[in-house]
Amino acid sequence: MMENLAQGEKLNIIITCASGVERTVKTELERLGYPSAPAINGAIEFEGDSLAVARCNIFLRSADRVYIKLASFSAETFDQLFDGASEVRWQDYLPKNAKIIVNGKCVKSKLFAVSACQSIIKKAIVNSLTRTYKVARLSEMGTEYAVEFWVFKDKVTLMLNTSGVGLHKRGYRDLVGIAPIKETLASALLLMSDFYWERPFVDPFCGSGTLVIEGAKIALNIAPNLQRKFAFNDWKNFDKSLYDLAVTEARDKEKRDRKIDFCGSDIDEKAIKLAKRHAIRAEIADKISFIRRDVKDFVPSSPRGTIVTNPPYGERVYDIREAEECYKNLGKALKGYDGWSAFVITSAKSFPKYFGRKPDRERKLYNSNKECKFYYYYSKKENGND
Ligand SMILES: C[S@@+](CC[C@H](N)C(=O)[O-])C[C@H]1O[C@@H](n2cnc3c(N)ncnc32)[C@H](O)[C@@H]1O
Predict the structure, then answer these.
(1) Which of 14, 35, 181, 263 is the most exposed place for a label (fewest CB within 10 A)?
(2) How far, in Å, is the centroid of ligand 1 from the Cα of 336?
(3) What is the Å distance from ligand 1's center to 343 Cα?
(4) Ligand 1 atom 27: the closest Cα is on which residue?
(5) Are the C-beta atoms of residues 288 and 213 closer than 8 Å to each other?
């Protein structure tokens, strides 16, 4: 029983991520030693084992969740869904007392009633486990196992969520500022940029500090998810030593003695307080600085550096005129600093006009379901003016 989560057993692992960041996750996976198939609909699949599950949860910066794929089959009717779900050897994954949660989504499929699909899959699981464990009913008093289903174009995928809550919940950000960016998206933006630990880094609209903190963690090679737990940590059938192994590997790889020049600034005193609090909670407060500053007073303090930022979009707290004033002042501040690059995410289409330059590249991304552009402005001189 429950052999599939033992060390060395082959598993099909699915990593999910936000639309637009698939390639970044794929590169992260390759660096971890896991070549993967091309991403399909924000999901990347590869073959691994339980150690890979632990490592992906701990090391991936831009991924949303790590799943174990249980089955994939075509279904256009409830009977086909029930039969397909009944084929899974549920006893390989779920203990007798598992608390079974089933959730999912149906997209462009004949099966479109999510709650009916939920009930049918749950029924298939319960039928299978009561038979295998030879019990009349399941107590469901034990640890939670969340089964997720996707029905996309009549193809069903059944998966086990090993992460629990999304991986953007790193553990350091406990209070919410103005329009914070998700930690996973912040990391993805940094990984897409020319950001490098030896280059000075500034976020002039830092808010609660997410981009500076995620940036410092990348620069110091600190794994993003060491301060949180995952669903699999509570599973008795998941070998705890594999998690310990991945944590030791992460600790060994840290480069906390690197000297970095990373700063966040924001016009709002409360945001700066919050950013400092989050830096302390992320255990890197001594490595980064936060100051209260209007972007119009920003002057780069070195000939080269990188900005990755998420300025006001002009939609909620700040109106579009105030946002455009910010863009104009950022453009002014960087004039003549050819060694600086800037990477900016915003939904405001007028950004390039007010910033004063046509971007070298742009990419469509979503921030909290809002369609945005990520504008790339590379430095004009590789090494700045030095
Ligand atoms: C979208 S929020 C940034 C959120 C941040 N990325 C986070 O994760 O918390 C934009 C920030 O720009 C700041 N801001 C607005 N006008 C500014 C100005 N003139 N100078 C500097 N910061 C400004 C706001 O206080 C706000 O914190």
Answers:
(1) 35
(2) 24
(3) 15
(4) 207
(5) yes
Please report where in the chains the tokens 């990755």 appear, as a residue: 308
The answer to the question of residue 167 being in a domain is no
Assess whether the C-beta atom of 210 lies below 6 angstroms from ligand 1: yes
177 lines ligand 1 (CB under 6 A): yes
Q: Rounded distance, CA 189 to CA 211, Å?
A: 9
Angle between helices 114-133 and 78-86 (to 10 degrees): 30
334 domain residue, yes or no: yes
Do 196 and 304 sit in the same domain of this protein?
yes
CATH number at residue 355: 3.40.50.150
Token pair for residue 82?
């029930």
Q: Is 71 in the pocket of ligand 1 (CB under 6 A)?
A: no
pLDDT for the residue numbered 372: 97
Profile the chain (386 residues) by mean pLDDT over runs of 10 residues: 65 95 95 88 92 98 97 98 97 96 96 97 98 96 97 97 97 84 97 97 97 98 97 94 97 98 98 97 98 98 96 87 97 96 97 98 95 96 52
| 310 in contact with ligand 1, CB cutoff 6 A | yes
pTM, to two decimals:
0.95
What domain range includes position 303?
A: 183-220+255-377
To 5 degrees, how large is the angle CA 80–CA 86–CA 89?
A: 145
CATH number at residue 87: 3.30.2130.30
Beta bridge partners of 15: 44, 66
pLDDT of 176: 79
Token pair recorded at residue 250: 């992460």
**The pLDDT of residue 3:** 54
Q: How open is the CA angle 212-216-217, to the nearest 5 degrees?
A: 120
Other residues' Cβ atoms within 10 Å of the Cβ of residue 215:
28
Q: Can you say whether residue 2 is alpha, beta or left, with left for phi > 0 and alpha for psi between -120 and 50 degrees? A: left
Structure tokens at 245: 């192994």
According to the model, what pLDDT value does residue 384 have?
46
Provide the domain count of the chain.
Answer: 2
What's at 289, amino acid-wise? S
Query: Residue 6: what pLDDT?
Result: 65
